[in-house]
Amino acid sequence: MLLRKTDAPKVAAVYKDFIASYPRPQELAEADGAVLRNRIGRLGIVDRARLLKLTASEIVARYKGRTPLNFEDLIELPGVGAYTANAVLCFARWQAVPLLDTNVIRVFGRVFSIRSRKLRARDDPELWAFAGMMVPRRRPATYNRALLDLAGTICTAVRPKCQQCPLNRICDYGRKRVGKP
């Protein structure tokens, strides 16, 4: 939830202090709203602190302070969508589930020339199904981290580094930019 609409370096700057201050959902649920907003304010999204506190309160009330570890329960928490639920399942439970955000959609669109017919591509069940087929059963967290890193460092929205991309030999977009291998 901290990474929503921001980037990892910004979150890294506040993460250690955030986790030290709120190591469990109970502490976050009881946090002073103004102090919490101040701690994470540079991440943007004014409502983020309220949503984090509300989600923590739900975890405390409904799950005795333990984050649920199944999709159905996670998706019911305030502010948790399919991406966040799958991220928890992937990184906490090592489940082979996809992470589909704007950056991953861009990579898939470039490599495989896939386009969504939905206005909000991240809500497209066909893209989620495709992304799910791509996740290996072994080491899914490593795959998802690598895909997110590729999107953030090489297959960027502006000025992608196709020459450096490990997928440029199979990438439709990269072949057009770099030339056929």
Explain what you see:
- It is a single chain.
- The protein is globular.
- About 55% of the residues lie in helices and about 0% in strands.
- About 25% of the residues are buried.
- The chain has helices at about 10-20, 25-30, 35-40, 50-65, 70-75, 80-95, 100-110, 125-135, 140-155, 170-180.
- It has ten helices and no strands.
- The longest helix is centred in the N-terminal third of the chain and has 16 residues, at about 50-65.
- The mean pLDDT is about 90.
- Helix 3 (about 35-40) packs across helix 4 (about 50-65) and helix 7 (about 100-110) crosses helix 9 (about 140-155).
- It has two domains: about 10-65, Endonuclease III, domain 1, CATH 1.10.340.30; about 100-180, Orthogonal Bundle (Endonuclease Iii, domain 2), CATH 1.10.1670.10.
- The chain is an all-alpha fold and about 180 residues long.
